[in-house]
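Batch job 17 of 40 flagged for manual review because the log was empty.
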Amino acid sequence: MADVDQALDDAGLKNPRVRDYVRHWAELTGAERVEVVSAADDARLIEESLAAGELLPAGEGRYYSRSYHKDTARSEERTIVATSNPGDAGEYNNWRPSAEMKPMLEERMRGASKGKTMYVVPYLMAPPGSPLEKYAVGVELTDHRTVVLHMIRMARVGVQHVENLDDPDFFVRAVHVTGDLENLGQGTDDDQRYFVTVADERTILHFGSSYGGNALLGKIAHGLRQAAYDGWASGEFLAEQFMLIGIEDHQTGRTYHVAGGFPSASGKTNLAMMLPPDALGDRYRVTFYGDDITWLWVNPDDGRIYGMNPEFGVFGVAKDTNEKTNPTALESVGSSSQALFTNVAYNDETQEVWWEGRTPKPPEDVTGWRDWKGNLIAEREEGDDSPWAHPNSRFTTTLANVPNVAGDFEDPRGVPVDAIIFGGRTRDREPLVRAITDVAEGVYDGLTLGAEATYAAEGVEGQLRYDPMSMRPFMSYSESDYAAHWLKILGEAREKPIFAHVNWFQRDPDDGHFLWPGYQQNLRPLLWLLQLKHGEVSGRRTPVGILPTEEELNLEGVDISREDLEAILTIDVDRWRQEIDHRAEHLSAFDGLPEEIWAAHRRIEEALRDADD
């Protein structure tokens, strides 16, 4: 058994509650030794991982790993929020009673780290000195060294974050035990994996994975699920799956900040890391704060909504990342970045990495190339065109590596948020941008955010997969309370952000081409939105929001036809009448939804009914 006290003494970890917590789980899991880590241990841990074959070199200062082939993504069906209050149950949070889940997880974890090192990772999911710092402190215990390396890139790691807490007991207890990955029955009726957030006890228990959101407990489990619950329970803040960017206008000297939620595959990371279009590059600069999580609160000094990215790094999807879609991301994982790549293709001889979309075609010379499972491409049977990289392959890098990271990304005060946008991937009904100036209607729009589901192409005409605020997989309490909490926080602000819905993916119904060029050009509708907020343009009112006129939208240097432009700046009233019925059905699943949300729905429904076709 590990000498826990000696390990904690050697690391200078004195917090008595943390020490009790580490002792308990070291004994229960049977860990052979305990090691407390900080960011200063990164280089040593990398060398140990290389020596053990857990990592492979991917060029100078970059590294590659493969996960078990059945352990490649978050598992929503095995992810559970547990509390002692049945009233916390919602449509999406897979609620279970904590009295049932905690003993189950403890039994699975008992003795499961025998012969392994338990790494103690004290971390902070916020810049030091943040007004939300007390909600950001956690300690992850993990028996997987690669998980530690990812955590060092995704959070601020060090003993100092758990010492001298106002309440030494107020930290998130996050326990990760990998388990025997080859014998967990992934995807079967005998699946042993469970990923549980015991939200009212601020405890996270994850068993049966070493991958991403299942194992980096500071990220999704703490940064979204637990933080969302804490924000609601305290009444102080929102924790959302939002990107956060700054837009600097060199002509006026003003800087704006935009936060936004997008369901998966709807362009969130590319938007967060975008560069301004060439024609506007001299005047505007886009700065990066984060692509995945934003905490939002009201600053009592000026009454505005403020936001911050609690993460310290980027855990990005590699697929389709290239010089056109996201040159910023590529630069952030360049030589000497200390970036980690997971489940991409790897060349044994050249130490190169590749993924689908990195280049139009895979490398022609397949010598040395292995797919994400480790199989040699050269030994594939003729006609085998399966992906070289897993579709959910990833890169992990620190925020400091992002070339256009905001200069104040570590400012504990956060930044004032001027606009909150939502965007889903839809080929029709949603125009390029529609602004919403009413708070309840803005929250309503977020609650009815959706993207085209796979089954939409299989005959369910017009049906979206709704993803409220893009938080469907991360909800930790009931949707009705969630809506009420949004209205409360926004209601306390003396100056409200403007809301908007954006859509880069509208297609021509005949030949299927995208009507809007996207990528860098997506800055243009955001600029219009900010002009609208400040009274510089007025737009055109429709039943579902304010749309830009052609004259108001800066189109200098944009290659778009008159017909396509007209299509993305109008709405199809008949299509929206169909959509409003789907929204009513979707919202009806949330018992006790605030009347303000239903009133917003009825206003839009009535306006659509009275509109000209």
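Reviewer: the log was empty due to a logging misconfiguration, but the result itself is present. Residues 454-459 have pLDDT under 50 and may be disordered. Unflagging and moving on to job 18.
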